[in-house]
Amino acid sequence: MQKLRLVFAGTPAAAVPSLERLAVSGHEIVAVVTRPAAQQGRKRVLTPSPVATAAERLGLAVIEAARLDEPTTRRILELEPDLGVIVAYGGLVREPLLSAPPHGWINLHFSLLPAWRGAAPVQHALIAGDAETGASVFRLVPELDAGDVFAMRARPSGDGTAGELLDALADEGADLLAEVVDGIADGSASATPQAGEPTFAPKLGIDDARLDWTASADAVRSRFRGVTPEPGAWTTVDEQRVKVLDLGEASETTATDAAALAPGALELVGRRLLVGTGTGALELRRVQPAGRTAMSAADWWRGSGRDGAVAR
Question: Whole-prediction pTM value?
């Protein structure tokens, strides 16, 4: 098998398993391109990206770039890569960089293409209630996430959050990506056009994370799962924002006791805090009121003095 010279572009933690997998694949990673360090946390500490941290640990050369502009393109081309690999870098690959490597660029995307093209595929899949999702490795083309697909792997969406599902897909996708790179190296890889109508997954904002208690219980839970941990589910109670950190189905007993709860109405049933939706109650398990630390939802409600208040 031919040993390829790879340029890897990625930024968040979801890209790290792919970088680690390729680092031991027998191919040479000539550079890792990642977005510059950013301010993190309440103290706004300048922090390297997860990919930059992993690359340093692996002893790989790092190019920090907010976008693949002309100077960055020139630096990459000087390395004469055979193949570009991109996983959630956060920027577009344009000409002449797109066509420069002899084998072009491939992208690991966390959906079953053409479903959920865009920046937030896992989040949108969960919000839509998809029972199945997966990972795809495709050839990068100028149109967004539209290139021919080399390989695809499906998995159940499960009942966890977007963060948990993305962690699983990042690990599984890393193996899939490495298999495609090996296939390109030995000439066995082939790609086929995407089939079906595409759906799109634009980046989510804070307004997308507000829970609508008038929706069905299934829809509220799906949105909660899709926006957790980012941008972070929230609601308001007495016009005060409250982050929703854990929201689950109510047990049969408590749900029956609170069957008449109006959408957004809150009620303690035993040790559980229930909240009404358009079709029944859910259990509010863990919250973070504005300016306070995370806590049990039931403890927060007992100490809030807001009996009769409604989540909106």
Answer: 0.93
